[in-house]
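Internal QA ticket QA-208
Title: Verify multi-chain structure generation after dependency bump
Assignee: T.L.

Test input:
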Amino acid sequence: MEYVIEASGLTKKFGALKAVDGLSLSIKKGELFGLLGPNGSGKTTTIKLLTGQLKPLDGRARVMNVDVLKNPIRVKELVGIIPEQETPPSFLTAEEYLNFVCKIRKIENAENRCKKWLKFLEFEDQKDVLCKDLSRGTRQKLMFAQAFIHEPKLAFIDEPLINLDPVIQRKVKDFLQGFVKRGGTIFFSTHVLEIAEEICTRIAIIDKGRIIYEGRIKDLKRKKQHLEGLFLKMVKEA
Amino acid sequence: MFELLKSMMKEEWRSHSTMFGSMMFALFPVMIAIFSFAGSLFLPLFTTILAADKIALLAHYTFVIFGLSVGAFGLSGREIINRRFGQASLIAYSSKSLPVSERKIFMNFCVKDVIYYFTFWILPFMAGLAFALPFMTVSLDYLLVFSTLSLSFFIGLSAMFLLSTLYAHSSRILFGLLAIIGVPLIFLGLYFGVDLPSSLPSFSFFVSRSWEDLAFALFLIVVPSAVSLAFPKMDYPEKKRMYRNSLAGLSKKLDLLGNSHFISKDIIDMQRSEGGLGKILFAFIFPVAFIWVLLFVFLKFVPIADFLLVFSILLGVLASSIYEWLTEFDIFTSYVFLPVKVSTLMKSKIKGYAIINIVPLSILFLTAIWLNQLQDLVIAMAAFLSVSSFTLSIKIYLTGLYPNILLYSAKIFVMFLFAASPVLLPMIILSIINPLYLLASPVLMLLSFYIIKKGFAKWDKTESVYF
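Actual output:
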C-alpha cells in the first residue's frame, strides 16, 4: 500500500488556541480525500502543516516520502497547493504570474503550459489584467492553474470551488476526478458537503483540531447515509 | 454616533498594534518625544546657517505635509491594509454593508484621524519641545508654536480630505480645481512677486499674529472638511489595468544575475505601482538634500571634518532605505505555498539593491566634482559602499522582508540604532584623524556578508509571518 501522506500526532497552537490537536492521517495514492469541518475547525492549518507552510508544535508528517519538517521546500516542489486566500502578487498580470511560477518551478515549456491553463479555465481574455484587478473567481482560477502547472502527483486544495461559476466548477470537478484516475492524489478541504459527497472517495471530519470521523463515501452510500446528516451528528456529538 | 467613533479608534489602534505589538507601538510616541527633545536642543545651531523665520517656515510645511500624509494613508490605505492583513475590510468602507450613511462614517473617520494622530504624534512632538525649552538659548512663544504647528497639521489633513473626496467623485473635477487654484497662484507669484510659501496662513499667523491670518487658517481647515462632509465618497473609481507580458523578456535580459524572475518582478512592481520609479527617487533624494543641508550646518562647528567623506558615510545609511522600497510590494504569503525560501527572496532584493545603488553612487560622484575633490572619490566610494552594505545587513538581520513594519517597533528601531552607531561614529572620527583610514572600511563588507548570512538562516527558520 503506497501512502503519499502520513501524519501522526500533529499539533499546532496559536497562543492559547489549539488549532490542530494530535492529528493523525494516512492517505493512499489515487485517493480524492476530503477534509470536512466547520469554520475554524483546523482544516486550513492542517493543510499548512502538511505542506510545510507552518511548523508543528508536536508530531511529524511525511509527504511523498519526504519529511515535511526537515525539507519543506522539497515538499512544495513535489506538490501543488491552492491556498485558501488568493494572494497572487498585485502588480503582475495573470499571464505574467503563471510565467513567474513556471520560472520558480523551473518549467521549460512555460509558454505552452500557461496557454493551456488559460484556455482550460477560460480566462484567456483576462491574461493581461493585473492580479489585483482580477475578480475573486478569476483569481481562484489563476491559483488553480499555478497549482497544477508543473503537473504534480499530489495536490492540496483549500476550498477551491467557492468563487467559481457552475460551468467552471463542473470542469474543475471533472478535472480532479480525472487527475485521480490517472494516478494522482488530491487532499481537498471544504465545508461544502455536496461537493465532497459528489467527488471525494474518502472523507474525514475535523472539529476543534481533532479528527472525529473517517470513512469512505462508497460506504456511506451503501448504508444510504447522507453526508450532511452524518456531519451534523458528528459535530454536535463532538 | 459615539459607538462608531469608539470602534474606529479601536480599529486604528489594533491595526497598528497588530503590526508592531501593543507595547512597542505604545512606545513610538515616546520615541517621537525623545527625537523632538533632541532636535529642539540643536535648534540654536541651525539658526547660525538658516534664518529663524526660514526654520519656522520649514517646520510649518513639515506639519502640513504630515497632515496630508495622515489623510492620504487613512483614505487610500486599503491596498496597504489588505496587503498586510489579507482581505481586510475597515469600518470606513462598510457603508455598503452596514445601515450607516457614508456621511456619518466619513465624519467619524475625520474625527478619529484628528484625535488619534494629534494624540499620538503631534502631542508627543510638542511635549519633546516643551521639555527642551528650559535648555534652549533661543526664545520661543511655546503656545504660539503649538497652535500654529497644529493649525498647519489640520490644514494638511483637511486639504487631503477634500482632495481624496474630489478624486473619489471624479479625477477631472480634482485636476480642474487644482488648475483653477494653482494657475492664478503661480501667476501671482511670478508676475506680482507674492511670496507664496510664506502665505501659508498658519505661518503668517505665527509671524504677524493677526486675526485675519488666524481666520484664514481656520477657513482652510473648516471649508474643505465641510465640503468633503457634504459630498462624502470613500470608494475610489477603480480601473482594470492591463499590460502585455513583460516579465518573460525582462527576466531573459537579466538572466546573468540569477533569480532574474524575482528581480524582474521587483522592477515591474515599482513601475506599475502608484508614482512609479519616480516616487522612490523622490523619497530618496529628499532626505539626501536634507542631510546635505544638515551637514553644512554641523560642519561649520567641526571645520576639520571633510564634507565629502562625512556625506559619503551618511549617504550609505540613507541608501539602505532603498531596501524598504524593494520590500514594500511583497508579502511572503504570496510565496509560502511555492518552493521558495525567504532567503531566496532576500537575495533577489539584495541584487536589486546593488543595482539601484548606482543612484547614490552617482550623487556621490557629482558631489566630488562639485567640491572639486575627485582625488578623494575612491575613499568616499569605499566608505559609502561599506556603510551601505553594513546598514543593509543590519536591516536584513533585524527585519527580514518586513523593514517597513518592523522598523516602527520601538525595540527594533533602537536595536538598529545601537547596531549601526558604533560603526558609523568611529568612521566619522577616523575620517577626521586621517581620511586614508577609510580605505580600510571595506572590511565592513565582510562583516556585512556574515550578518546577511546569519539573517538568511534566522528568517529561513522563522515561521512565515503574516502581518
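Spot checks passed. The mean pLDDT of chain A is 92.
Status: verified.
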